[in-house]
Amino acid sequence: MTSGIDYSGWDHIYVSDDEDVTSPYVDTPSLFRMRHRARLEKMAEFQQRGEDLEINFAECKRLLEEAQGQLKELEEGRNVGEEDEEREAELKKVQAEVRKLKKNEKTFEKMIEEHRREEKKLPWNVDTISKEGFSKSVLNVKPVPKEETVQERVEKHKTFAEKYMKEIKHFGMLRRWDDSQKYLSDNPHLVCEETANCLVVICIDFEIDEKHALMEQVAHQTIVIQFILDLARKLEVDPRGCFRQFFSRIKTADKPYLDMFDHELELLKERVRSCAQIRMESAMKELEEEERQKRLGPGGLDPVEVYESLPKEIQRSFDEKNIQMLHEAIDKLDIEEGKYYLRRCIDSGLWVPESGEADDKEGEEEEDEED
């Protein structure tokens, strides 16, 4: 019976050429090393010749493409009617160059084919009978994620929001489970923490603008993303690979699961209302501070604060815009106290005396004090 396996591929294995002939007068290991080195040099020379042929063939093809492009331009110019002796001479020169390059290209193709045939006929040896499949080990260990800094997280959120804000707003307005699932299937990059953060910001903006219904709608979609992220953390998978599981569960969920979803939604709404209130109060404080800075008098005092700190008689003089009453009210006060209130009125801009008036008034009070 004949064997069904073809062993002809092993007919030309050449594995002991370095050890075929030995001599008692020559050091055998040295002889083996010398023959092995000579064979390696011969193999390297053969491989280098093949690489040179490939390089020359590629260069020939490049030159041929350039020459053909130049020939096409010259022929188009002749068709338009631009004919002169120099152009015709150049055209003939390029045509000859193209013919030469085509001939060289065919020659290189034949030489490369011949080199490949010779390579197939080479006998195997200890260096070519097998090749290393791979030389690295891969351990199935989950990499430890690098903890991001606050600045990196801020920049990441900003970049994501600028790039995908239109898609995020569209998702925030979806009401049906099927619509949300389909949209995330078409835009899986939205299944991430940054989308949830952007949705929360949109909720706060709607609450500040007193668009409460829109805020509640976007808050619902925020909880959808948050539940998907929580599920991914529990399963230890990428959120983009498990959002369909969430929708399959929520559409057929029992009452406890739906109650948990609604509870988280109500908590989010309360947090959004609280954040919106804090932002509005902060904005009011900033506005009041800006107005206060605008009101400051030449001495850096707030006229409203100074007015509220003045005695009643002095306040009444400012209300009636009566300078004589102001002088009389100050005269009734202790000298130092009068100087104190007078200077505060001037520094806050409540009273803008004529040039030298304030100094004269203070001088008179000092004279009275000396007397």
TrEMBL record:
<dbReference type="GO" id="GO:0031072">
    <property type="term" value="F:heat shock protein binding"/>
</dbReference>
<dbReference type="InterPro" id="IPR013855">
    <property type="entry name" value="Cdc37_N_dom"/>
</dbReference>
<feature type="region of interest" description="Disordered">
    <location>
        <begin position="352"/>
        <end position="371"/>
    </location>
</feature>
<dbReference type="InterPro" id="IPR004918">
    <property type="entry name" value="Cdc37"/>
</dbReference>
<comment type="function">
    <text>Co-chaperone that binds to numerous kinases and promotes their interaction with the Hsp90 complex, resulting in stabilization and promotion of their activity.</text>
</comment>
<dbReference type="GO" id="GO:0005737">
    <property type="term" value="C:cytoplasm"/>
</dbReference>
<keyword id="KW-0143">Chaperone</keyword>
<protein>
    <recommendedName>
        <fullName>Hsp90 co-chaperone Cdc37</fullName>
    </recommendedName>
</protein>
<dbReference type="Pfam" id="PF03234">
    <property type="entry name" value="CDC37_N"/>
</dbReference>
<comment type="subunit">
    <text>Forms a complex with Hsp90.</text>
</comment>
<feature type="domain" description="Cdc37 Hsp90 binding">
    <location>
        <begin position="130"/>
        <end position="291"/>
    </location>
</feature>
<dbReference type="InterPro" id="IPR038189">
    <property type="entry name" value="Cdc37_Hsp90-bd_sf"/>
</dbReference>
<feature type="coiled-coil region">
    <location>
        <begin position="57"/>
        <end position="121"/>
    </location>
</feature>
<dbReference type="GO" id="GO:0019901">
    <property type="term" value="F:protein kinase binding"/>
</dbReference>
<keyword id="KW-0175">Coiled coil</keyword>
<feature type="compositionally biased region" description="Acidic residues">
    <location>
        <begin position="356"/>
        <end position="371"/>
    </location>
</feature>
<dbReference type="InterPro" id="IPR013874">
    <property type="entry name" value="Cdc37_Hsp90-bd"/>
</dbReference>
<dbReference type="InterPro" id="IPR013873">
    <property type="entry name" value="Cdc37_C"/>
</dbReference>
<dbReference type="GO" id="GO:0051087">
    <property type="term" value="F:protein-folding chaperone binding"/>
</dbReference>
<feature type="domain" description="Cdc37 C-terminal">
    <location>
        <begin position="295"/>
        <end position="370"/>
    </location>
</feature>
<dbReference type="Pfam" id="PF08564">
    <property type="entry name" value="CDC37_C"/>
</dbReference>
<dbReference type="GO" id="GO:0006457">
    <property type="term" value="P:protein folding"/>
</dbReference>
<dbReference type="GO" id="GO:0051082">
    <property type="term" value="F:unfolded protein binding"/>
</dbReference>
<keyword id="KW-0963">Cytoplasm</keyword>
<feature type="domain" description="Cdc37 N-terminal">
    <location>
        <begin position="4"/>
        <end position="137"/>
    </location>
</feature>
<comment type="similarity">
    <text>Belongs to the CDC37 family.</text>
</comment>
<dbReference type="Pfam" id="PF08565">
    <property type="entry name" value="CDC37_M"/>
</dbReference>
<dbReference type="GO" id="GO:0050821">
    <property type="term" value="P:protein stabilization"/>
</dbReference>
